[in-house]
């Protein structure tokens, strides 16, 4: 069987020498281009860095059960939008393989794995947590904005068997979120912390299921902390 085509992506190139990469996964029904444009609208400019390439991949179309099986650009299927039901693990694992290819592309381009961050908004953040904490525990960090994991998540099962140092989690959530409840995000944070993940949870009062400028600025500060500019080595 032919390998699936590489994921479509929108890329913001670094202004200077490329020494690190960031993968941002959009929410359900969006696209990489759409997520990039949304952030650009909030900041009045692209989320761009001197040394970090920002990659916004697009999820392939697939039937999505919460939309009565209609096709949508989603990273995986859900039985329903709830934290209290089983995960659709087959579609999650299939996408983990596709996104691993994206990580490997960056490594082939000469970027060290400890210089790659992954995260996203809503479903994108959930996808990033599966990818990092189950398959890529040597990444330096994960970010999850308005995201959650199901109560019996495969992520929790994997971490119960783990003894290595884990990627740091930067999490943000609005208290007024009516789609992904704040309590779901908070519970995810507590569970991951109890399993050895270094976590932070930034709470945004009155923020619904959306991004805010303050939140993206905080995220950018964290990104620079995790992926600082590398001083060019001189050949003496």
From TrEMBL:
Annotated transmembrane regions: none
Main localization of the protein described in the UniProt heading: cytoplasm
Residue ranges occupied by any Phospholipase/carboxylesterase/thioesterase domain in the UniProt entry: 10-224
GO molecular function, one term: palmitoyl-(protein) hydrolase activity
Keyword Heme: no
A Pfam entry, by short name: Abhydrolase_2
InterPro entries referenced in this protein's UniProt entry, alphabetically: AB_hydrolase_fold, LYPA1-2/EST-like, PLipase/COase/thioEstase
Top-rank EC class of the record's enzyme: hydrolase
Record flagged with keyword Cytoplasm: yes
Reaction(s) catalysed by this chain's protein: S-hexadecanoyl-L-cysteinyl-[protein] + H2O = L-cysteinyl-[protein] + hexadecanoate + H(+)
Function: Palmitoyl thioesterase that catalyzes depalmitoylation of CGAS and KCNMA1. Acts as a regulator of innate immunity by mediating depalmitoylation of CGAS, thereby preventing CGAS homodimerization and cyclic GMP-AMP synthase activity. Does not exhibit phospholipase nor triacylglycerol lipase activity, able to hydrolyze only short chain substrates due to its shallow active site.
Family: Belongs to the AB hydrolase superfamily. AB hydrolase 2 family.
Descriptive protein name: Lysophospholipase-like protein 1
Native organism: Calidris pygmaea (Spoon-billed sandpiper)
């Amino acid at each position: 069987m032919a390998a699936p085509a590489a994921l479509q992506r929108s890329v913001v190139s670094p202004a200077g020498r490329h020494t690190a990469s960031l993968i941002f996964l959009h929410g359900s029904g969006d696209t990489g281009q759409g997520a990039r444009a949304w952030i650009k609208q909030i900041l009045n400019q692209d989320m761009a860095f001197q040394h970090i390439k920002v990659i916004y991949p697009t999820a392939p179309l697939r039937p999505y059960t919460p939309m009565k099986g209609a096709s949508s650009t989603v990273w995986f299927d859900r039985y329903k939008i709830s934290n209290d039901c089983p995960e659709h693990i087959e579609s999650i694992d299939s996408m983990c393989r596709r996104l691993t290819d994206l990580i490997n592309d960056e490594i082939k381009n000469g970027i060290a794995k400890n210089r790659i961050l992954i995260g996203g908004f809503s479903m994108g953040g959930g996808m990033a947590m599966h990818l990092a904490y189950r398959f890529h525990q040597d990444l330096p960090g994960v970010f999850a904005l308005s995201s959650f994991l199901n109560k019996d998540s495969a992520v929790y099962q994997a971490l119960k068997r783990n003894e290595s140092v884990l990627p740091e989690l930067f999490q943000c959530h609005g208290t007024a979120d009516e789609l992904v409840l704040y309590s779901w995000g908070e519970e995810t944070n507590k569970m991951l912390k109890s399993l050895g993940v270094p976590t932070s949870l930034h709470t945004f009062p009155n923020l619904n299921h959306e991004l805010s400028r303050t939140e993206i600025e905080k995220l950018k500060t964290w990104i620079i902390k995790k992926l600082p500019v590398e001083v060019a080595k001189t050949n003496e």
